[in-house]
Amino acid sequence: MNVTATNHDEVSALLTVTLDKADYKEKVEKQLINYAKNAQVPGFRKGKVPLSLVRKQYEAGIAFEEINKQVSDALNNYINENNLRLVGQPVPNPVNELDYNAEQLSVEFEVGYEPNFTIDLAKYEAPHYKVEASDKEIGKSIENMQKRFAEQVPHEKIGDDSYINLEVKQVVEEGAEEHAHNHPPKNIMVNAEQKEAFKLVKDLAMDGSVKVSKEDLQNNEDLTKELGFSKEEVEHLHHDQVEVTVKDFYGLNNAPLDQDLFDKIYGEGTIKSEDELKAKVKTELDEYFQQNADVHFVNKILEQITEKEEVKLPETFLIKWLMFSNQNIQSEEQAKQVLENEKSQLKFQIIEGKLMNDNDVKIDYTDVLAQAEQLVKNQLAIYGIHNLGEEDVQKYAVEMLKDQQQVQQISAEVAMAKLKDIILEKATKKETAISHDEFLEELKK
């Protein structure tokens, strides 16, 4: 058995796997003998079926299966032993007829490689913002904590300080009632901060409703979002109107800043005064802002790398691979258009993979579990739960990792986090102090 490479250029090649009959003949023969021992054929006792009959019926299938296995193993071993970083997957060249009785046979595969290049992170520079929480942000965060544990106060009518529970459902036309169950209502809460939705319902009484046309929603992006619809959902509404109904409204008496609130948020005795609470919140916000600033820096560096680095793609191979792997692509012209649309994303993936490979980024289960635990903590924090025990957090994380899709997503996050650390360490930072409001404006750009 032998694998040879004939390079088309520096990013594509033809790999030829050559097998001698001796490579697979013995294994095929053993399987035939085993079939003969166990085959149940009418007219013959078990184990007494003539080998010639078994050979006639099964030899071709067994031989081709063994040849495919050995070709696949040889190809994978060659790729791994030569550290080939493929783009796409090997594409087999058509074979008119494979003669398993021939003394030697060959199978050819077209392959595309990632180009060989180096990235000097130190030559790339971007602003690295230092964002500190202001008194305004600290106060807002604490106010949100108070609201989470606030007491509801009945209101006689909707006021500027009211919180309003709404039911939003499609208006089903006469004659289409049997399909109404396909469009369950949305239940949302709004207040004066959701300006468009609040303006729509502020003059309604309990159980009062107002209808909004699909056209009005399409023309008012803010109202669409505040009523719980995405742009795509509105475009695919089955009916011409939605009805918005007031189901409840009330005010909130924010929870007082006392020991009871401190204990509910951070666990008993962790925070003992308002000053300690402010300091704790500032630390958390500073860490959160800095994480965002770090991500912003990394994204800017990656944008520069993607823009400036020359990355040669194996385009001729990729067109073949797209036509081979995607049954919806019926022509070379169609494959060329798909490739053109995906070039920038493919280039980014190659750069990302190159950075990870060159910097020896590896991921193990411990990393993935730690990230899953952090995700659990983040989700619990949304509901004001900050003090769940580590064993319980890990139990939820392990449960999360039973979903293979979650494992893949979290593994990608871990890899990106490790790459982020490398870029933060090696790329050139232009340290810049900035307020949070200024930073938000920078993100909008």
Word description of this protein:
With about 450 residues, the protein is an alpha+beta fold. The protein has three domains: about 1-110, Trigger factor ribosome-binding domain (Alpha-Beta Plaits, 2-Layer Sandwich), CATH 3.30.70.1050; about 120-130 and about 260-445, Trigger factor, domain 2, CATH 1.10.3120; about 150-255, Chitinase A, domain 3 (Roll). Helices cover about 50% and strands about 15% of the residues. It has 15 helices and eleven strands. It has helices at about 20-40, 50-80, 135-150, 195-200, 215-220, 220-225, 230-235, 260-265, 275-310, 315-325, 330-360, 365-380, 390-400, 405-425, 435-445; strands spanning about 1-10, 10-20, 90, 105-110, 125-130, 150-155, 165-170, 185-190, 210-215, 240-255, 430-435. The strands form three sheets. Strands 6, 7, 8, 9 and 10 form a five-stranded antiparallel beta sheet that branches. A hairpin with a 2-residue loop joins strand 1 and strand 2 (about 10-20). Helix 1 packs across helix 2, helix 10 (about 315-325) packs across helix 11 (about 330-360) and helix 12 (about 365-380) packs across helix 13 (about 390-400).
